[in-house]
Amino acid sequence: MTWQSAVERTVTGLGYDLVGTEKGAGGLLRVYIEHEPQAGAERWITVDDCERVTRQLQHVLEVENCDYARLEVSSPGLDRPLRRAADFARFAGEQVEIALKLPFQGRKKWRGALRARPEGGESAWRLVLADETAAARKPGKARPKPPASPEVERVLDFSLDEVREAHLVPVVNFKGRQSAAPAEEAAATHDEDEGGRIQ
Fold this sequence. Notes:
The chain has 199 residues and is an alpha+beta fold. It folds into 2 domains: 3-74, RimP-like superfamily, N-terminal (GMP Synthetase, Chain A, domain 3); 78-199, SH3 type barrels. It has helices at 3-13, 47-63, 85-90, 133-136, and strands at residues 16-23, 28-35, 70-74, 95-104, 107-116, 124-129, 155-159, 163-168.
């Protein structure tokens, strides 16, 4: 049994969800856990949760003769990575940042509200891109308002195999994570720009 499968079996056996693992310098083994998702409730990982998993993992890794020098167990943090199709489905509607394997329109990093695409199955996703004109505007330089026109969403369509990494955009909110852009059904159809993915 590999150390990854030993860790996964132990974490899930204790009733937690394994977010990810990584090995660092000097034999450091990091394990990221969270509570399994439950409808209508968001539970946070506590120190007691980390201690419970740490104790059990130390025992299992010793029995399985897994090589490591130090073990760290923690929550994935506010910028939780999205790695599996189930992660994308769970956090649909949230603000996420993705890094593509290959650049599209000269850039790899894109940020927006995550939505599922009705076509293409569980690997077909869409980012509703934030309006970047205000962020790019230099302070002190007023620009004339463009003529009024119906608001058109800009979106980036992608599949999971095009993504190098993805994570939630941190939201600091002591009442719990709230979506900065709630998922809504797109009512209007959009004309595709050149390139076929950004609309």
